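Two records follow; treat each independently.
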Amino acid sequence: MKNSPIIVFSKKQTAELQYREAAAPGEGEVLVKNKKSLISIGTEMTAFSGDYPKGSAWEEFFPYPFDAGYAAVGEIVEVGGNVDKSWLSKRVGNTGPHCRYAKVPVTDLRLVHRPEITDEEAVFYIIAQIVMRGIRMSKVGWGESAVVFGAGLLGHFAACFCRLSGAKPVIAVDTSDFRLAILPEDKSLIKINPLKEDLTALIKEHTRERLAGIVFEVTGNAKLIPDGCADKIMFQKFFLTLSINCL
């Protein structure tokens, strides 16, 4: 059997490097030898800290002990029953934790088609996938305005995908000028630091008093959203996307 190192949050604010024997894949599963895994700083630090309300979704999704991590890239080294052997040796993105060998359902795999994409780049697939899910659920499109709260990685993707979907204007809101500066230069992509400018006034100005058609909240702090600034709000987290109509 293969010995596999794995990072485990054994209890609140405690991370351990453990070693386990990698089990053979079962029906509909593959065994992936991972080369890179993605640290999702916001989600994993929250899970590590244990600083969330009792009975919340966080507590449900991250019970201790918890195998940390949910995105990795590696090579398939073994397939289970009812899995096509053509998967062997394929490079894939997968939902395994921070470990060397991960047993993963074949339905959770994302094939890395292009050889020029490095493992360091490919492992970010899960972030784009999370945001695309929210964009599709929102049905944002031509003729709508969108406001994205948070210009970190999730917010960056959200703003760009809104523009690709035809939203205009798209307003990105963050208290970090550095994050805002990384966003593409686009006259229909408005960047606002609410510590320096009147956010509500600028949203009204850029939407001709119509306010936002939809707001994407990707900071984890919905209190940042001014009352009455949008018709619909999408709360985006890795394990759920929640839509609320504000009409």
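The next record belongs to a different protein.
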Amino acid sequence: MRATNIVLTGLLAMGTHAVEATAFDQAEDSETAAAYIQKGQKLFAEKKVEEARKAFEKAAELEPDNLIARVGQFVILLNQGRPDEGLAILDKWIEEKPDDPQRWVGKFHAAAHAKRPKVALKAVDKLIELEPAKGEHWVGRGQILTALDRHKEALEAFDKAIVAVPKHEAAWSNRGGILVHFKKYDEAIKSFSKAIELSPKWADPWYGRARAKALLGDTDDALSDLEKAIKLRPGLKNEASKSADFKSLRDNEKFKSLTI
């Protein structure tokens, strides 16, 4: 999710270079939560899972309010096939300060990552209760509702995100995707175009607009947008080659060259 905090996204990805240089640029042997988080990530990348778990626990002990330390504990359990235990750790953390938004942020993203959309929806609804003017919460709600095939409600959520933050590119792009679902292609193109205007180096709205244009039969513009999307994110060529939205382009030579 584009609305997700980049550090949290990196931690959930959990690889050798999962988190960019931030506050974690400290000596590994220093007694700080940041150092233990960095240590936990490296240990996890080396498949030393139990040692990584202890490092995240130590980080949480040193800084009980540290979101990354808590999510690190969750990630360890998730990768061990124990997501519910990981979510229980976050629930206990929330009980200590039930009106702390960052704790619900952790629960929301953890539940979404664990493919527990109903749990994630409850968490994001709490975030909206606490911070109704934050567009990112409405975007998160819309994305979860989309996953639950509750598209009308998802569209309402993205609209509310735009009211809260008119320049929220993820809200505009996700809104476009919902409008494609409802076959409102012209409206979808306008929504994707707004997202592109706000974030021209983000592949998603270029790809989404290509889909809408292909479905309208606007071959040349669809191919132009698809080419841009693939340049920004090469992995989209495989997705496009399989997408039913580009069925009308299957025999087009340029489409073939873009997706091989």
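Discussion point: The longest helix spans residues 49-62. How would you locate this feature using only the token line?
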